[in-house]
Amino acid sequence: MVRHDTGVGGGGGPLNVRDAGPGGMAAQRIASPVQLGFQVLAQEAQALAQLTESMRQEDAELAGSFTECVERILSCRGRIVVTGIGKAGIIGQKLAATLASTGTAAHFLHAAEAVHGDLGRFAAGDLAIVLSFSGETDEVIRLLPHLKQEGIPVIAITSRRESSLGRGSVVTLPLGILSEACALGLAPSTSTTCMLALGDALALTVSQMRGFRADDFARFHPGGSLGRKLTGVRDVMRNCHACRMAKPDERLRDALVRESRPGRRSGAVLVVDDRGKLCGLFTDSDLARLLERQCERFLDAPLSDVMTVSPFTVHQSSRLEQAVLQMVRQKISELPVVDDELRPVGMLDITDLVGLFPIDSTSIEDSVPPTTTAQGTDSEAVHVLPLPERNIVRVPSIPPRKHAS
Asked: Which of 77, 115, 269, 383 could form a disulfide with 282 if both were Cys (CB 3.0 to 4.6 A apart)?
């Protein structure tokens, strides 16, 4: 078995392309893929560490410019237009997308297309963020006079303030002199990594200072796994008109017959008192247990004798993912959804939720808040609202149960 030297801790560096002999063939030792990959990662990580250190020193050039950039973006009355070309342009697209998805109206404009009519995308009140590591790219520099004429302020992300781009901007985020991780020292790598990280820092700082919340994020990400993760229970629950509801003094048989509905029925009856508050739950599993124990006579008993008091509930402002994890943890198939007054507004039925998103049961204990979460204390948590026990006479043959299953 061939063992590749990673080059960590000595042993010499990899063979540089410039060390190759005629025809490009290596004349000496050939570095392993792991060694080459490690050196690329190490060089980019070192550059990021230096950039981080520059940000930590609040009196440093980068830190002061960063603060001004954040303030300008927050005070922008229009949109943020990000532009660039080549690899820097691709990083610009990522920056525009991150800004847009975290609460800042932004879009990307290709620098080459801008001078062929797309300058019309700029409007009064907009702010431009221009990316070019050299700060001398022709297509980018050509934009500056036009932006100045239209009164569009420019934020530059480039290597030096002294570059043409830096001099034409109202504020510059200087990356400093960087060596590309490419063996030729040419392919944008270290520079684009630093641009990407600095762009993320800028966008996410602005988002946090705006007070952007998870609920806001969910509005912009209705699809995919992120959308499913952030979906609220109200978006998928069965509304009350699709649920079976009854009073505690109704006979079980009457409630089941009266509340029969066409199509796929819910697996539980919500029991509400005269004030419209949830006071119990009777599930299909409860019915099955009665029949298994040959207790058919209790079909003519009032619901208050056979229902589950103090069922688990979820607040209507909670997120679906946490509610489903709670259902898995408690091994229940129906979860009533209630408002602040403990009035039912709907119900989550496991048959409606299967397949919406995968559940990692190994992470349930870490992901689900304790079942004693107080009502109304955290809109992002699952609110388990225990209902007060009532003086209900339970039949000896049916052991009292605290929670529905």
From this structure: 269
Q: What is the pLDDT of residues 326-366, one digit of tens each?
A: 888 888 888 999 999 999 999 988 877 776 655 554 444 44
Tokens describing residue 386 = 């225990």
- Sorted by sequence, the CB contacts under 8 Å of residue 112 that are 6+ apart come out as 85, 139
- Residue from 40, 22, 31, 12 nearest 184 by CA: 40
Task: Report how far residue 244's alpha carbon sits from residue 266's, in angstroms, rounded to the nearest whole number.
Answer: 7
Q: How many residues does the structure list for the chain?
A: 405
- Domain 233-367: homologous superfamily in CATH: CBS-domain (3.10.580.10)
- Two structure tokens written together for 399: 């052991």
Of 235, 200, 196, nearest to 215 by C-alpha is 235
H or E stretch at 278: strand 278-283
- CATH 3.30.465.10 holds for 33-212: no
Count the helices and strands in the chain (H runs, E runs). Answer: 16, 12
* Residue matched to tokens 């490419």: 182
